[in-house]
Design goal:
3 domains, Rossmann fold, alpha+beta, globular, 568 residues, 12 helices, Jelly Rolls
């Protein structure tokens, strides 16, 4: 007979945590530029034997798979740094409330869209995705054989991994390296495409993977204390000057500033080399590129560069085109994008299907930023995804999600996405953690994940564990016309609505012409009364209808109200 022995087994609550980068964001944050608030103190205090987390490794697949990579970790200071911060704070609140074991299966991937997390069957009503899948599979079949001649590396998920990987850095970053056969490229660059790096291919395709860019420039004199400034490089870079590493960053939106040590620059020829990684969605090198110092000595590095595609993301790996295979690279066929955003259902197949039918109490979800430009579609896509998951598991488990936080996307499209999320509350057994008070205009990844996790936990405590508490911030429910004003009703006001320290702001009204005007708003007898001298007969009202606002309406428990519009 054979036997299996299991040790350290707990019986408790298991929740699924999923989404994009704000769910993926670890307890450290994305260091050094995007830390979680008080992350070191939080990690030092994360000593809970009864909290466990299993993080599913990234895997996209065109077909459903049955196995996954990942293992359960006990929550201790030496393990917690890698835990999803939002999921950890959610689990901690539940554990502290009842002293029961809480397990989190964490399956997320930054920058991803909702359709990637929805099964093929769940997308039946979305014909726009069916054609995408068909074309992807056709291209995969033709590219797969050609790609077998090249090496593979793992897709990096953080700066430490990307820095440690070798993409022939010593050779390519050397001053005397011959890049004469490389493509001519103009930087700054909005998107890395086949037209940019493979112009002879006559393809029109965005590229995702690893790229090299080199710039030669001559100096007659060498100013002191120079710093290299570039715009944001999406997602990461390792940068060399004359073969010497001068800096590296893992942040899609952070401008780079790399001091140049004495002796690195030379009289005569110098070469700046950038190893650039893009994991999907965007691949820009934005903004000015120059060397300058406090004396305002400035050396522009914009304009003509040389560039080469070094690795494609393909079916969960980096396929590497080593220098010795340069000739073969000229025959590259259309390689399907390695971004899960370009293959609907790919993350459901690779990162959710293997979990089913593991029994879960419910799910928490933090996503939406990558669907901002398709808010109307999201109104039906997101509820379809929720129902699809429930159908796959075979029961109607609770599903709680985070409304995306205010952030300056630059297009004022995000309020419609936030409202699509609010609209999704019509789906049974759902709840929304509102984050209108913790956004950052310059950072899509707010450092305050404590409140996010706690607000998700409030929903679970009230709905699933019978705790009597106020579970949500105010949600707009109705309006009543009275003379030249609108009176607004809200659910979840608790003991009454409360204005922020600067009063009520960011309310607007519109009349029959549909033109919005700033409105005066007051709290009277538990309602918000809005009016504007520019709109004598207001018909519609909205609040927080901008990419970024500072919340000004709260309930008695200090929970912020959701942005909303009364106009369909």
């Amino acid at each position: 007979d054979t036997s299996a022995v299991f040790n350290d087994v707990l019986i408790g609550e298991v929740w699924l945590a999923s989404g994009q980068s704000n769910m993926e964001m670890p307890l450290t944050g994305y260091l050094p530029s995007e830390p979680i608030d008080s992350y070191q103190e939080e990690i030092d205090a994360a000593n809970y034997d009864k909290i466990r987390m299993l993080t599913v490794q990234r895997n996209m697949s065109p077909f459903p798979v049955d196995s996954l990579n990942g293992s359960w970790l006990t929550c201790h200071p030496d393990t917690a740094a890698t835990f999803s911060a939002t999921a950890y704070f959610f689990a901690r609140r539940l554990h502290k409330e009842f002293n029961v074991p809480v397990g989190i299966i964490h399956s997320s991937w930054g920058g991803t869209v909702a359709e990637a997390w929805t099964s093929e069957g769940g997308l039946t009503d979305f014909q726009q995705f069916q054609k995408v899948v068909q074309e992807y599979l056709e291209n995969t079949s033709s590219a797969k054989e050609w790609l077998t001649q090249f090496g593979k590396k793992s897709i990096p998920g953080d700066l430490e991994t990307f820095e440690s990987q070798d993409f022939e850095d010593a050779q390519i970053a050397a001053t005397e390296f011959d890049d004469s056969e490389w493509s001519k490229v103009t930087l700054p660059l909005e998107q890395v495409t086949t037209e940019v790096l493979l112009p002879a291919s006559n393809q029109a395709q965005d590229l995702h993977g690893v790229f090299w860019f080199r710039k030669s420039f001559d100096l007659q004199e060498i100013p002191q204390n120079l710093v290299l400034y570039t715009g944001a490089i999406d997602d990461a870079d390792v940068t060399y000057l004359n073969g010497v590493k001068i800096g590296s960053t893992w942040s899609w939106q952070e401008k780079r500033e790399y001091p140049i040590r004495a002796g690195v620059l030379k009289q005569g020829k110098n070469v700046l080399s950038i190893r650039h990684f893009d994991g999907g969605y965007g691949s820009n090198l934005n903004g000015p590129i120059h060397l300058s110092n406090a004396n305002k000595d400035t050396i522009s590095l914009e304009g003509s560069w040389k560039g080469r595609l070094y690795a494609d993301i393909f079916l969960g790996s980096l396929v590497t085109y080593e220098l010795e295979k340069t000739e073969a690279l000229s025959e590259r066929p259309v390689v399907p994008s390695g971004s899960p955003n370009d293959l609907p259902s790919s993350l459901f197949n690779g990162m959710l299907k293997p979990i089913i039918p593991y029994t879960i109490k419910g799910a928490i979800w933090y996503q939406g930023e990558s669907n901002v430009e398709r808010a109307e579609e999201y109104k039906t896509l997101f509820p379809s995804m929720i129902n699809d998951w429930r159908n796959q598991w075979g029961y109607e488990f609770p599903f709680y999600f985070v409304q995306i936080a205010p952030f300056d996307y630059g297009n004022d499209l995000s309020p419609a996405l936030r409202d699509a999320q609010r609209y999704s509350l019509q789906t049974p057994k759902t709840g929304m953690a509102i984050t209108m008070d913790i956004g950052n205009p310059e950072n899509i990844h707010p450092g305050n994940k404590q409140d996010v996790g706690n607000r998700l936990a409030l929903l679970a405590l009230a709905n699933d564990y019978g705790v009597n508490l106020l579970k949500s911030g105010p949600l707009y429910s109705a309006k009543t016309s009275y003379q030249n004003t609108l009176m607004l009703d809200f659910e979840y006001s608790g003991d009454g609505l409360v204005a922020g320290p600067k009063g009520l702001r960011d309310f607007e009204v519109a009349g029959e012409d549909g033109i919005w005007h700033e409105a005066e708003a007051r709290i009277i007898s538990g309602n918000v009364i809005v009016s504007s001298p520019s709109v004598p007969q207001p018909l519609h009202v909205r609040y927080g209808w901008k990419d970024y606002i500072e919340a000004s309406l709260f309930n008695s428990e200090g929970l912020p109200a959701s942005s909303f519009t009364s106009q369909d």
